[in-house]
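Example complex used in Figure S2.
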Amino acid sequence: MTVTLITVEIREKSVLAQDIAGLELVAADGKPLPSFTAGSHIDIHLQDGVIRQYSLCNDPSETHRYCLGVLRETDGRGGSEAVHQLDVGECLEISDPRNHFALSDKAEHSLLIAGGIGITPILSMAQALHANCTSFELHYCARTKERMAFREDLQASEFSERVHLHFDDGDEDQKFDIAGLSQAPDPGTHLYVCGPAGFMDAVLDAVHKGWPSEAVHREYFAVDPPAMDSDDRAFKIKVASTGEVVDIPADRVAIDVLEEMGFDIPKSCEQGICGTCITKVLEGTPDHRDYVLTDEEHAENDQMTVCCSRAHSDLLVLDL
Ligand code: FES
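Predicted assembly (320 residues):
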């Protein structure tokens, strides 16, 4: 499967906060970039085949640039470190924007919640909601002021009265009341959360009982590497286009086995968070292990992330 890439040039690089670099990317050929919707991310292709996803944080009405905020993760897999080494004038290959964290057109009020670098898609959402004159409030939590990217931009924005900043090292009374989210929301309120896994889990735990699942939207940046469960079972995948049946052993990941068999399935995060490897399921019941599809999409069982998900049924027929 061929993926078309866009060549972009780094037009500007800045320090947004401690350990957070800002990059402004423009098309190397000077043409407009593909349009995007709030909550979208792009893949950045780095050296040695490393691919990383970063959310677009600029106003989605812009097509002359893509803006990113990238946190240097010292205990990460090296991608963010490589991005921090990039310089103005360098060219990069990126994917078209994709969106697995879109704003709902059913929302009458949006509660945007960002933890740390999770502000990037949330910032784009705030700009889109403001432009559409749609009701929203934004809660942004960071460890310290020094670690809070876009703080001054948010305080100077036209929607600054909707923005609430919370600091871990500040007074108790300014901290974000995650437990308060457990109360049922007003009808028509949708919640969007993005941030570190522990922060997201706390928010999602709080809203678990009181909120309708279709009103809760989340995007993970990174999760703990998928661990093989000792209860994982073997299953078979039938490739619809050829009829070939492939055995997936209990200790192997489907995409790895399919790759060895010569099937080229696009992949990126290999953690079930980016959606690159989503593949249509024509028959059988997947055992969803991803963080990118919604509960409703999981229930439909007509697509799966083959980088981490498995099967409840003995056989899956995939549209490959
Ligand atoms: Fe990212 Fe599968 S490669 S979800």
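The helical segments are 79-85, 119-131, 151-156, 197-207, 254-260, 295-300. The domain at 109-220 is CATH 3.40.50.80 (Rossmann fold).
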